[in-house]
Amino acid sequence: MNPTNILLFSDLHGRILLAFKLAQRLQQERNLKIDLILQCGDVGIFPNPNNLDKATLRHAQRDPSELGFSQYFYQAHPETEKVLNQLDCRMFCVRGNHEDHDFLNRLEKRVSTKAFPID
Asked: Of the four, 58, 77, 88, 89, which is 20 to 30 A from 32 by CA?
């Protein structure tokens, strides 16, 4: 039986693409397969920058990577597609206090699967 390789992150604050790139690099350098990425809070899921909380807005003004979800994941993006096509793993996320919860609640209601990837 092969071990399950789980990569654990926390507080990505919009740097979701970086997490997938790190998983991809780890797979290549260690010749192993990442089976699951678990992200524990503060993913930074804000599809609309107008809905940012005050702290995220303040940080995004200094570091635009805080807006990585809206830049790389809300709509199709070639760099994101390239990285994700080289991985065969899912990411499950636990919501933190820096997420657009209204957006996530609406998204969750549209999903009919047992597992919604964001808590």
From this structure: 77
